[in-house]
Design a protein that fits this description.
Layout (H helix, E strand, L loop, with lengths): L1 H47 L18 E8 L3 E6 L5 E4 L3 E4 L5 H13 L7 E8 L4 E6 L5 E4 L6 H7 L7 E11 L6 E6 L1 H5 L14 E6 L3
Parallel strand pairs: 6-10
Antiparallel strand pairs: 1-2, 1-5, 3-4, 6-7, 8-9, 8-10
């Protein structure tokens, strides 16, 4: 009788352990399925999240080659991308040629709205934004891997310019870097010498911020 009781006790313990293991396995499987479902959803949310846009001031002055996004919001929706021509104009449906060079984005917006309202649309609402800034340029010349013309962005500096141009050639000298800046209202250039070694050592005050029309010159070193 005592042996039967011990056997029943062992059986009960074994059954309890097996049930506990089965419960743990079931919970683990449910948790794994939930994580598998949550991961694609999180990835989808991350993929759909809009990229932050770089804010452009409405006081930006439009120039040749700039690319504009123009949207008529009402009364009829219309959206197009236009490039400012070499003579400073764009072409727009209904109203034809619109001079935009030297204007702000807000001014162009008001001009298009007014011309559309003059017999073409009733109470038009227009939005004008800058898609690409191509009118503001600088030049890199001399001993760099890729000399040429580059578009000027916010806070473009000497170090960034040299990086864009592929860095120094084996003949380029870091001690012979300068900027030729067009003089205001007269011909010629002002020369700005740059201590690029100090810049590369972390001195931000020596990293000149470029302006439109600047020419970055990297001369050959003296060997």
């Amino acid at each position: 009788m005592k042996q039967i009781s011990i056997a029943l006790l062992i059986l009960a313990i074994t059954t309890g352990v097996a049930m506990a293991q089965e419960k743990d396995a079931t919970e683990a499987m449910i948790l794994e399925q939930a994580m598998a479902q949550a991961q694609p959803a999180a990835s989808a949310q991350q993929a759909e999240a809009p990229k932050p846009e770089v804010p452009i001031s409405t006081e930006y002055i439009i120039g040749n080659d700039d690319v504009l996004d123009i949207t008529v919001i009402q009364p009829e929706k219309m959206a197009l991308m236009v490039t400012v021509s070499p003579d400073g104009n764009i072409n727009f449906p209904y109203i034809g040629t619109v001079p935009v060079k030297g204007m702000t984005l807000e001014k162009v917006q008001n001009v298009i709205q007014a011309r559309l309202a003059d017999g073409y649309m009733k109470y038009p609402v227009v939005s004008v934004t800058l898609k690409e800034c191509r009118s503001k340029k600088f030049f890199v010349y001399g001993e760099v891997a890729r000399p040429g013309t580059y578009y000027l962005e916010d806070n473009s500096t000497i170090l960034k310019a040299i990086s864009l141009a592929g860095g120094f050639t084996k003949y380029g000298s870091s001690s012979r870097v300068k900027v030729l800046r067009p003089k205001k209202g007269e011909k010629g250039y002002d020369t700005i010498k740059v201590n690029i070694n100090a810049v590369m050592d972390g001195s931000s005050k020596d990293d000149v911020v470029l302006e439109t029309g600047d020419i970055v010159v990297i001369s050959e070193g003296v060997f």
